Amino acid sequence: MRDIKEETLQSATGAWHRVCELAALPEQAGRSAWLEGRVLALFRLGEHVYALDGVDPLAGVAVLGRGLVGDAGGEPVVASPLYKQRYALMDGRCLDDPALSVACWPVRLDEGAVWVRLD
Q1: Is residue 3 part of a domain?
Q2: CA distance 85 to 116
Q3: What is the pLDDT of residue 104?
Q4: Are 1 and 32 in contact (CB under 8 A)?
Q5: Sign of the CA dihedral 64, 65, 70, 72?
Q6: To the nearest 5 percent, what fractions of the chain are helix, strand and coil?
Q7: Is residue 80 situated within a structural domain?
Q8: What is the spatial distance between Cα 81 and Cα 68, in angstroms, rounded to a whole number?
Q9: What Cα–Cα distance (Å) separates residue 70 from each residue in 9, 30, 32, 87?
Q10: What is the pLDDT of residues 49-80, one digit of tens each?
Q11: From which domain of life does this come (predicted)?
Q12: CATH number of the domain enclosing 69
């Protein structure tokens, strides 16, 4: 994915950034994107896209975009490819260790494009 800095919209709560086309995200899998100095992990489940901080909090490296996508009791999650902790795609909390979490960013879809709001 490419960093698209020129396509930014300001709102009262932060800036929306166009990240990629929805078609660029594979179904039931993750991808990494570089945006405003951050590595994001994007996950597509049907017509829903989730954006988390891409850095695994235990390892300190940007690998969450390569994690395994699944569910835990019906809740969509990603499992870190390194230490296997599961992070909720809805809010970034770790299901296996309450002391861990990753940032979660709002996502919107507009005319086939994925937009992420960074606050």
Answers
A1: no
A2: 24
A3: 98
A4: yes
A5: positive
A6: 5, 55, 40
A7: yes
A8: 7
A9: 32, 11, 17, 10
A10: 999 999 999 999 999 999 999 999 999 999 99
A11: Bacteria
A12: 2.102.10.10
